Amino acid sequence: MKYRYISPRVLVQEIKRMKEKYRINYFIFHDDLTFVSKKHALEMAECMLQESVDVFWTGSVRSSLFKNESDIKIAKQLK
User: Fold this and answer.
1) Packing angle between helix 38-50 and helix 8-22, nearest 10 degrees?
2) Which residues, 6+ apart, have CB-to-CB distance to 2 below 8 Å?
């Protein structure tokens, strides 16, 4: 199976474009590979904060991705 990687920066730019063009303010990520790793999830959170992306969103992740106490910081940034 092939996986096409999209960087957090490109994903955030696409969210901003869709928000502006279609006036969308709610996004749902149903792909477990959206947050393929903790590093990727943290980069996504940082990009969304840096770009001041003002949208509501939900996403699914693998249950094993955030399993340690130290992962709470990343999860809170994604909130």
Assistant:
1) 40
2) none
Do residues 74 and 41 lie in contact, with contact meaning Cβ atoms separated by under 8 Å?
yes
> Strand, helix or coil at 29?
strand
3-class DSSP state of 24: coil
| pLDDT tens digits, one per residue of 40-68 | 888 988 999 999 999 998 888 777 777 88
Residue 19: count of CB within 10 angstroms of its CB? 16
CA distance 18 to 20: 5
Q: Which of 70, 56, 9 is nearest to 78 (CA)?
A: 56
